Amino acid sequence: MQNRKQLIQAAADAIYTFGIRGTTSARIQELSGLSRGMVNLHFGSKENLLLAVAEELAARYAGQWKAIANNPELDAAEKLISIIKADFDPLVLNARDVAIWFSFRAEALSNPHIFPFIDSRDKGFRAVILELLEQLKSEGEYEDVDAKLATDALTAMLEGLWTDYHLHSDTFIPDEALNLCLFVLRSMFPAHFSTQSAHG
Residue 55 to residues 33, 45, 138: CA-CA distances in angstroms? Predict the structure, then answer.
């Protein structure tokens, strides 16, 4: 199990440093300190090892929002804010992991096995956001709000902010990104977010 984790870590480091195309078995071997045979032993191939890296990133990201969505102590607005905050948490939004994430996205169309792990239209995530927004719409009697369009707008904004972070990680300010999301939510659900801010 330790060797498996070591190989995933080494492969992730290689992708961050050299990109997907530059991540060779030799580089993984060098970074891990393990023999090349260990890759075949634990994963069967280098391609399967790279998929394991993508799967680990996706699992870490999903673990954050699923834990929040399943928390019975939070109401719908609190869950939504917490999920957005989690999107800007350094656990998932850090220069290394985001660079790896975008490296996988560059390969996704030519490698359908990668696609489920990096799909920006993750059905589970979108379903949770839609459910929360529909609940807010019902609670606040926001008759003019289209919950599906609001879901599309929010997820597109999060995608754009991740791209902004990827390109400008040195100047990206998570609190400003959060306030931008809250600004949009406030325009649609004023009774739920009128007093919210990044520190509120």
Answer: 22, 15, 36
Identify the CATH number of the domain in which residue 39 sits. 1.10.10.60
Give residue-wise pLDDT tens across range 140-165. Answer: 999 999 999 999 999 999 999 999 99
Same-domain pairing of 39 and 74: no
Structural domain range at position 147? 57-193
**8 A C-beta contact, residue 23 and residue 11:** yes
Q: In terms of DSSP H, where are the helices of 70-173?
A: 76-87, 95-108, 115-118, 123-140, 147-167
The residues, ordered by sequence, that sit 6+ positions from 189 with a Cβ below 8 Å of its Cβ are: 77, 133, 136, 137, 140, 142, 145
Per DSSP, 196 falls in state: -
CB atoms within 10 A of CB 176: 11
Residue 186 domain-assigned? yes
Q: Over the stretch 96-132, which tens digit does the pLDDT of each residue have?
A: 999 999 999 998 888 888 888 888 768 899 999 999 9
Q: Could you give the CA distance from residue 115 to residue 109 in angstroms, rounded to a whole number? A: 7
Mean pLDDT, rounded, for 76-82: 96
Show the CA angle centred on residue 192, arms to residues 183 and 61, nearest 5°: 65
Decide: residue 188, CB within 10 A, 0-12 exposed, 13-18 middle, 19+ buried: buried
